[in-house]
Amino acid sequence: MNNHDAVNEILVRLFANILDIEEKCLKIGEFSDLSISEMHVIENIGINRERTMSDTAKDLRITSGTLTTAVDNLIRKGYVERKRSIEDRRVVIIKLTEKGVAAYSAHEDFHKDMVISALQQLDTKEEELLIKILTDIDVFFKQKYDIGYK
Amino acid sequence: MNNHDAVNEILVRLFANILDIEEKCLKIGEFSDLSISEMHVIENIGINRERTMSDTAKDLRITSGTLTTAVDNLIRKGYVERKRSIEDRRVVIIKLTEKGVAAYSAHEDFHKDMVISALQQLDTKEEELLIKILTDIDVFFKQKYDIGYK
DNA sequence: TTAATTTATTTTGATAATCAAATTATATTT
DNA sequence: AAATATAATTTGATTATCAAAATAAATTAA
Lengths: 150, 150
Description:
globular, Arc Repressor Mutant, subunit A, homodimer
């Protein structure tokens, strides 16, 4: 097996496993009534931000209809609140409740913990190479597939 | 921003985009009747391999029932064939058809393209260091989060 | 060698995430 | 004022998924 195949194989496995880890950790934690998708909505709304439905849907690359039902459920569960914009009454503003902020923070802590643990075994030179390679992949995607990054 | 935050940020962005990109490429290509999930089944069955339903489901971390319907659809679309094992008639053997192999190869090309362009700027020594880093991280995740690898 | 148990798969009945298209309400343009 | 455009929701559908029940075959135990 050449190096390209080795890197490809391990990246595929890593990506699959990290998603699994995220889901697993969510399910055993304090906010186990949230799905990964719902957590992504919370992540996107963010702390101290008022977001419109359209902008959030666009960022998450889902339709408005999909976001409407997701937000319905997040409101029912107490993580998000919704109000009409005063300037333009077609627009709906969503923001995190206190509970939503707590969930956001917990998730962020998990991310930090995961990354810090993973990097602990690397020396500075290795860390920098890793960042370089991840950046390259990121740039490659952006250029080649014209993905709308925020 | 320190290295930890840099890696966290870029990982989050990569993860948010990678499945979308994969899906996008799939949808504009020759095998646009395949979903990402279905492609993952094809990827797991592999070329020149006969796989049982159980082993494939375990690898993909989905239930046998889920795999049964996925394979039903892949057979209907002409990518997979299914037969009973002769040694143990409870066991169902699945393998790729010629069309399945073609889809597998096309998907592999996408992955290779991704990795090659990411590795382009590294020399062999750096490539090997990267493989070591990724392997270490992979093993680390396995130990820390007790993920059921194959 | 029958009966009980285990194993491999499929079926069934349910839920979550998603989309496209239709609808509703409001704003903007002609 | 009418026509058009925009923001969000609703509707009706599909796909991916699971847990639990059912089916069929193999293995173990009585």
